[in-house]
Specification:
The protein is mainly alpha-helical. 71% of the residues lie in helices and 0% in strands. Helix 1 packs antiparallel against helix 3. The longest helix is centred in the last third of the chain and has 40 residues.
Length: 99
């Protein structure tokens, strides 16, 4: 069968992991873009630069940058989920073919 790269179990596993990755990264992206205070430890900022001035715009820009990176990673997981779904369909078609 043309285009068949992985078996049905690997395709199902890829679909499950991709779905979980999309959900997790989308939620993280939402929390980062809403500037959740709990996630400050995961923002790439130096401790001394937090208290340099009273303007939090630099920190908010870093939050947004990390949030956008999470959304980009979620989009990549969507691509892998589509690939896994196509592989599942090809494996299902292969099961119905008579050799």
């Amino acid at each position: 069968m043309r285009g068949l790269i992985c078996g049905p179990k690997l395709a199902a596993c890829g679909l499950v992991l991709s779905t979980w990755g999309v959900i997790m990264l989308a939620v993280l992206g939402i929390f980062y873009t809403t500037h959740s205070a709990v996630l400050i430890e995961d923002v790439p900022v130096m401790d001394h630069s937090i208290y340099q001035d009273g303007n939090p715009e630099r920190i908010y820009a870093l939050y947004n940058k990390v949030g956008y990176n999470c959304f980009i990673a979620a989009a990549i997981y969507i691509v892998f989920a589509v690939f896994s779904c196509c592989q599942l369909r090809l494996n299902k078609q292969k099961a119905y073919l008579v050799h």
